[in-house]
Automatic annotation (TrEMBL):
Keywords: Flavoprotein. Gene3D superfamilies: Electron Transport, Fmn-binding Protein, Chain A (2.30.110.10). The keyword Electron transport does not apply. Pfam families: Flavin_Reduct. GO terms for molecular function: FMN binding; oxidoreductase activity, acting on the CH-NH group of donors, NAD or NADP as acceptor. This is Flavin reductase family protein. It comes from Azospirillum lipoferum. Belongs to the flavoredoxin family. Residues 11-163 form the Flavin reductase like domain. Its cofactor is FMN. The lineage of its organism: Bacteria, Pseudomonadati, Pseudomonadota, Alphaproteobacteria, Rhodospirillales.
Amino acid sequence: MQSIPLDRANRFLEPGPIVLVTTIDGGKPNIMTMGFHMMVQHDPPLVGCVIGPWDHSYSALRNSGECVIAIPTVDLARTVVDIGNCSGATVDKFQAFGLTPLPARTVSPPLIGECLANLECRVSDIRLVETHNLFILEVVAISTDPERLERRTLHHRGDGSFVIGGKTVDLRDRMVKWRHLQD
């Protein structure tokens, strides 16, 4: 075994796909790219997200308590990276990247029409924001596009390379302890 720097732990533990987060600040919608998130629990559905003061979306999320987590697919890979390389303080990202803002059902920030799914969220817990920039969000509505053909997601390796999700291994028959979580 070879030792590697500690700051590379995320390359082995990437919890899920790269997502886009929409917020609204002063009536202006913004989009940020985010890779540090995790499911916290199922019922109610809670998601932990790291969004720090270095992100333009941080103050919008702190002030409004609402956001949308949009799940992009591989066809948006370059757009996802480019969104993460600029700031909503100076760029209207919906316009710059040709994305379609759609009205959400329960929160003010918009959905992203080109994404596979959109999770409308409200901040549930901020106790770890000051120390770890970790927001706990409750998912309050979910929208998906069942007609969307591309369903493969992007998983960042922490070094600018991505793994493309898509192949499914079905082991539901072995999940005897967790059958209540299956469709």
